[in-house]
Amino acid sequence: MGNRKEEFEKFESLPEERQDAIVEAAVEMFGRFDYKSASTEEIARKAGISKGLLFFYFKNKKELYLYLMEHLMEKVSDLVVDDGFYEIDDFFELLIYAAETKRKVFSRFPYLLEFSVRAFYPEHKDIKDTMDSWTQRQIDLMFSTYFRCVRFDRFRDDIDPKYVLDLLIWLADGYLHQQRALHQRLDMDAMLDEMYRWCAMLKAYSYKEEYL
């Protein structure tokens, strides 16, 4: 997505409280509405600035959206990957630890969960290709970076840990599709309960007996 520091230098030179006001307003709009329906005029109004000033910091709606996505995922990652993160060497325990930390993060930022899910299922042509490729890069990065201290020797010899991660992502994808089809508002607690069940099943399937 380019060098954000250079592209958004004007925005990031603002006082932190002004940056936060704009980010929170944009997250709410993109969380409550799809990309096409999210109003930049309403974002500016909620942030207490003019629409013209919003587009002084971000050239257009797409640029604002992509900045938000990268900025927020970095922020969440910084909060999740804390002092205790790399002390965990079990694949499934690490996933659960990260999920519990994300639960706390999402509870502090209204509409962040909805925004994240909409970003995971981009529909508008302006952002779909960019977000689809970005999401895949994040999955690859997660495995190579965040799992570097995991003991993969606990897995059976015929099991590929990356495939197990893919299975969890596919399960989550199916769950989210179902909830969206039912027009249900996402419940983080219910979603994590399902994830813990999937982790227990996949651990029983993929670990060597002595590690169960």
What does this structure look like?
With 212 residues, this protein is an all-alpha fold. The chain has a single domain, classed as Orthogonal Bundle (Tetracycline Repressor, domain 2), CATH 1.10.357. 69% of the residues lie in helices and 0% in strands. The protein has eleven helices and no strands. The radius of gyration is 19 Å and the shape is elongated. It starts with a helix and ends in a 6-residue tail after the last helix. The model has no long low-confidence stretch (mean pLDDT 87).
Please outline the helices and strands.
Layout: H1 4-7, H2 9-12, H3 16-32, H4 40-47, H5 51-57, H6 61-80, H7 91-108, H8 112-120, H9 128-146, H10 161-181, H11 188-206
CATH superfamily: Tetracycline Repressor, domain 2
Order of helices and strands: HHHHHHHHHHH
Helix content: 55-70%
Q: What characteristic shape results from the CA principal axes?
A: elongated
Helix/strand/pairing class, anyone? Answer: mainly alpha
Task: Calculate the terminal CA-CA distance, rounded to whole Å.
Answer: 42 Å
Structure summarized in a few sentences:
The chain has 11 helices and no strands.
